[in-house]
Amino acid sequence: MVETPGTSPLRLGAHVAQEDPVAEAIARQAPLVQFFLGDPQSYQGPEIRYPGGAAALRAAAQEAGVDLYVHAPYIVNVATTNNRIRIPSRKLLQQHVTAATEIGAKGLIVHGGHVNKADDPEKGYDNWRKAIEATDLTLPLLIENTAGGDNAMTRHLDRIARVWDAVAGAAGADMVGFCLDTCHAHAGGNALETVVDDVRAITGRIDLVHANDSRDDFDSGADRHANFGAGRIDPDLLAAVIRDAAAPVVCETPGGAEEHTADFAWLRARLG
Question: Average pLDDT in the 166-177 region?
């Protein structure tokens, strides 16, 4: 039995396999799940593997009371000055927006991307503006903070602010939100004690939390997720970030339904 939306203050789900995300949600007793549509490392475009296609998946999710979130491919980088990456990235982003809308997803999550070492970061910010204006956003696009790279657009708070300023001036900005990843914030060198307030001061919002412990130290730049309590983030601090963000939560922690259920219990025990 899937948790009925609104019966718990904590809406908690997980990143799951894409073949039958509704069954994955039911296995975890979760009211929401996140998944890829196709290969996250390919420009081939979205692929809906659910039997019956987009309409069947949308209907099944609605019947089960499960909210769907789609993660865009990792290779999407709309900030880069490299035309051979930026142009297909914009195309892939639009394809995933369209496909995610067709299945009734609540949002599409995309990484902030990066520029090349010799590039002026201002070009990356402006490329984000252009990408938003070039995309027909038929559902919320949630930009996610990332863990590593000196040239990343959304690792450090000052660059997140510059991306947000650029996007705010674009047509379609009202459909752009923010996804806060706890592992990425920790590994990216952002103090978890203040990160919720820091992000809200920039964006005015947190629409989704990717809740993950980190296998690596603060400011390591390493994007390696761990199950709750098995990583390097202080447990109480991790729970406090998730509580204070007050947004739906997707656990991208290792394992399947059993491990995710254990992570859910760990978090709920600390949130009371």
Answer: 96
